[in-house]
Every structure is written in structure tokens, then in C-alpha cells.
Amino acid sequence: MSLAIDDAFLDQHPTSAELAEEAGGLFPNGITHDVRYFDPFGVYIDRAAGPRKWDVDGNEIIDYVMGHGALLFGHAHPLLVNAVKEQIGKGSH
Fold it and tell me: How far apart are CA 45 and CA 12, in angstroms?
């Protein structure tokens, strides 16, 4: 049975729906971490900056979880991005 809210969600996230279907053949429930599971499917993130994420369908999402506190400066903070670029230029393993 299809619910109106599910239909609206699918209309806003068609690419995520396709990716979720593909992932269902690769991972249990199509996810790699149980906290990302929800019906009818999870969204697939394309990029993130500060407190926001954008999914593969262009929807902007506020990230209230922020890596469970690990991202105190938000996603892709310029200071941290520059520090990583500087270090990776010195070599990687």
C-alpha cells in the first residue's frame, strides 16, 4: 500500500530511490550502517558544507547529527580542508 507521504518522498528523491534499489543487491537492506536505515529508503548525499548536506537530487538537508559530535566545525570547514591538503601533499600511506 502506497501512502501519500511516501509518494511525495519518492517524487523528491528519484535518484536516491534508484541508488537504494541498486544498493539493496549489495548490502543488507541496502545500507552500510543501521542508523541510516529508514522507510521507504535512505537518501544519498552528494556534498556537504557547514551544517548542511545536499542529496543527489539537489535537496538541501540540515545535518543535526553532525557525525555524532565528531564534526564540531561542520562539514568541509575551510581551515580543516586546508590543513588536510597541506598534510596530504607531504605524502600518504
Answer: 14
Question: What pTM does this model have?
Answer: 0.81
Contact between 19 and 25 (Cβ < 8 Å):
no
> Hunting for cell 548525499 — which residue is that?
45
Query: Would you call the peptide bond into 40 cis, given omega within 30 degrees of 0 as the criterion?
Result: yes
CA dihedral (41, 44, 48, 54) positive or negative: negative
Residues written for the chain: 93
Give me the amino acid identity at 54: W
pLDDT, tens only, 70-86: 889 999 999 999 999 99
Residues 2-52 have pLDDT tens digits of 689 989 999 999 999 999 999 999 988 888 887 778 888 889 999 999 999
CA 58 vs. chain centroid, Å, equals: 12
Three-state SS for 65? coil
